[in-house]
Amino acid sequence: MSSFGKVAVLFGGTSAEREVSLNSGSRVLAALQGQGIDAHPYDPAEQPLDALKGYDRAFIALHGRHGEDGTIQGALEVMHIPYTGSGVLASALAMDKFRTKLMWQAAGLPVPEYALLNADSDFNDVEEELGLPLFVKPAREGSSIGITKVSTPGALKAAYQEAARHDPLVIAEKGVMGGEYTVGIVGDQVLPIIKIEPATDWYDYEAKYNRDDTKYLCPCGLSEAKEMEIRRQALEAFRMLGGRGWGRVDFLMDEDGNHYFLEVNTAPGMTDHSLVPMGARVAGMDYPALVRRVLELAAND
Fold first, then answer.
1. Which pLDDT score, from 0 to 100, does residue 193 have?
2. Is 250 an active-site residue?
3. 158 and 79, same structural domain?
4. CATH number for the domain that contains residue 36
5. Looking at the domain assignment, is residue 301 inside a domain?
6. How confident is the model at residue 198 (pLDDT cuts 50, 70, 90)?
7. Count of domains for the chain
8. 107-142 confidence digits (pLDDT tens)
9. Based on the domain organization, do 28 and 50 belong to the same domain?
10. Within this chain, do residues 73 and 163 fall inside the same structural domain, yes or no?
11. Which own/partner pairs from 162-165 qualify as long-range (CB within 8 Å, at least 24 positions apart)?
């Protein structure tokens, strides 16, 4: 166990996802310590960066801004501390849903139709062009924060204003309503696909973290050929952004069986509701083994 040296588990932070991160990080910390690894908590909201001096590795269990967007990754680079997950560029790109879409479109990967919104947008035109329902989201937030499903004509402007409270960069995205899925990646291993069936209208923050009636199906119900095609493309989508170590790729299916990639999460949740641990468990990797494997993959850019 000593090969890991002294390990900092980074969790908490200052983003809108602080509570989720505290949950993820405390579980990761316990799993590492339970395996005899010299792991210690570090909360960047409460401790200076200097407190990381002397650590040999960092397990990043931060979510959202300043934890998942390349900023803490850059600080760890400067301090020469290997860390889990993607590097600076991939973390920043994946946090920005708009630029993620641009990269994937350039590579010929399927994404839902979308439009960028600002205060001067012709909201009626966007509604007509994309059709209803559509989803309005801040481009650089996670955990469904600031997202609104627009189902009635004329409601787009209010949805834009809600999203703009969280980020000046706002996307309207065509609703692809044939099912929501996710696929975890650990090293070179693509985990089994999970289908998400919320009891709510869509997979919002409550359904993700606070409700116990969200269904997670694994096997996901897709044909073996379709699942393998999507798993292969998901790894391509992850690597296209420069992803490394581990992550999670979310995608949607339409009613005709076509898939559309949605976003990449470069510091996935590790709570008891989280999806990567679920996929890992189906693949035969329990929670402590998953945490250990992610830590083994820690690197510098």
1. 98
2. yes
3. no
4. 3.40.50.20
5. no
6. confident
7. 3
8. 999 999 999 999 999 999 999 999 999 999 998 876
9. yes
10. no
11. 162/136, 163/117, 163/136, 163/137, 163/138, 164/119, 164/138
Query: H or E element: which one contains 263?
Result: strand 259-265
Alpha-carbon distance of 289 to 293, in angstroms, equals: 6
pLDDT tens for each residue of 147-156: 899 999 999 9
* Residue 21 and residue 15 in contact, taking contact as beta carbons nearer than 8 Å: yes
Q: Is 269 a catalytic residue?
A: yes
| Same domain as 81, residue 104 | no
Question: Distance between CA 89 and CA 242 in Å, rounded?
Answer: 7
Q: How far apart are CA 231 and CA 114, in angstroms?
A: 24
Rounded Cα gap, residues 285 and 72, in angstroms: 28
The pLDDT of residue 199: 80
The CATH number of whichever domain residue 106 belongs to comes to 3.30.470.20
> Phi, psi at residue 190, to the nearest 5°?
-95, 120
From the candidates 27, 244, 248, 287, give the one annotated as an active-site residue.
248
Q: Of the residues 21, 86, 91, 143, which is catalytic?
A: 143
For 188, the domain range is 94-110+177-296
242 catalytic residue (yes or no): no
Q: What is the 3-state secondary structure (H, E, C) of 209-227?
A: HHCCCCEEECCCCCCHHHH
Q: Are residues 192 and 273 in the same domain?
A: yes
